[in-house]
Design brief:
Layout (H helix, E strand, L loop, with lengths): L4 E8 L6 H8 L18 E6 L3 E7 L10 H12 L6 E7 L5 H10 L7 E6 L7 H14 L4 E4 L8 H11 L17 H16 L9 E10 L2 E10 L2 H8 L4 H18 L2 E10 L7 H6 L5
Parallel strand pairs: 1-3, 1-4, 4-5, 5-6, 8-9
Antiparallel strand pairs: 2-3, 7-8
Bound molecules: guanosine-5'-diphosphate and magnesium ion.
Length: about 300
């Protein structure tokens, strides 16, 4: 136990590079919701992995947002800045195939971080056929900023993750664990109820609408081994309400069913999930409404 290592590892990058997929595979559990659409992750989320030799607390963060004019986007960028405080290692995740100006913005932020804390994680290498191209890509990035380690991985397939983990453990300070060994996250069951409902909406609704949704959990109680959940879906306009409900309630029904199945897996209990849709005008650009919807807890 004397050589036990413990530390915090933040996962940073622009939207869609695979940060949440990486967190889920590193902790062997689906905690963070994943989609091909930006803005899927809105909150920092800790995933805790404890082994005989170390406890690593991974922090998944929202993708860095450009020009944060809206209060919601400002909130997401604040989450990213917080995740850089009191951190032992930062994983800067990039997509092996695509670089864009948002990656440049992430580099600007990371320039203030000591390079011995910085790992460059090149994700989605499963999708790269020309490995020489990959080497050139890595070269270009490492000419711009120094990294302690550079690790190509496929978060989706799990390739390279064991190596990544052992490099991380090597860098962590010696110290006792911060969390009980069976704890996998800092978030409570309520949080996942809201997130898993939001994930199903993101998957089913066309591109713009998911950004206009937020979920609150108005009731959460366990009785006779069944978890009873009341989830409210907040939209900003009446028209959006009918889209979320769908013809004859089809969309909402499908969302409720799929989210329930995911939650039953996570909790390992039966779930009774009820959903409502309500309108709150312009919620995503009001600090006050964001507070009411739980964004500053
Ligand atoms: N081919 C491939 N796709 C991936 C990989 N990791 C993530 N993705 C996909 O990239 C998209 C964005 O993933 P997500 O984890 O939500 O990215 P985030 O916005 O950075 O958290 C999803 O469609 C994932 O399935 C990978 O290693 N290989
Ligand atoms: Mg994410």
């Amino acid at each position: 136990m004397s050589k036990f290592r413990t530390g915090f590892v933040s996962i940073i990058g622009r939207p869609n590079v695979g940060k949440s997929t990486l967190l889920n595979h590193l902790v062997d559990q689906k905690l963070s919701i994943v989609s091909r659409k930006p803005q899927t992750t809105r909150w920092n989320l800790q995933g805790i992995k404890t082994s005989a030799e170390a406890q690593i607390v991974f922090i998944d963060t929202p993708g860095l947002q450009k020009q944060p004019k809206l209060a919601l986007n400002r909130h997401m960028n604040r989450e990213v800045s917080h995740s850089l405080e009191h951190i032992d290692i930062i994983l800067f995740v990039v997509d092996a195939l695509k670089w864009n100006e948002l990656d440049d913005n992430v580099i600007d932020i990371l320039k203030n971080v000591a390079s011995d804390k910085l790992f460059l994680v090149i994700n989605k290498v499963d999708a790269v056929s020309d490995k020489n191209q990959l080497l050139a890509y890595i070269d270009t990035i490492s000419n711009r900023i120094d990294f302690k380690e550079i690790i190509p991985v496929s978060a989706l397939k799990g390739d390279g993750l064991e190596g990544l983990e052992s490099l991380i453990v090597r860098e962590l300070p010696v110290g006792p664990p911060h969390f009980p060994e069976d704890q996998v996250t800092d978030r409570n069951e309520r949080f996942f109820a809201a997130e898993f409902v939001r994930e199903q909406l993101i998957l089913r609704l066309s591109d713009e609408l998911p950004y206009r949704l937020s979920i609150t959990i108005d009731e959460f109680k366990e009785e006779n081994n069944i978890v009873h959940i009341h989830a409210c879906i907040w939209v900003e306009k009446k028209g959006q309400k009918s889209i979320v409900i769908g013809k004859e309630g089809k969309v909402l029904k499908a969302v409720g069913k799929a989210a329930r199945l995911e939650l039953e897996k996570l909790y390992d209990k039966k779930v009774n999930l009820k959903t409502w849709v309500k309108v709150k005008t312009n919620w995503f650009d009001s600090e006050n409404a964001l507070k009411q919807l739980g964004y500053f807890d």
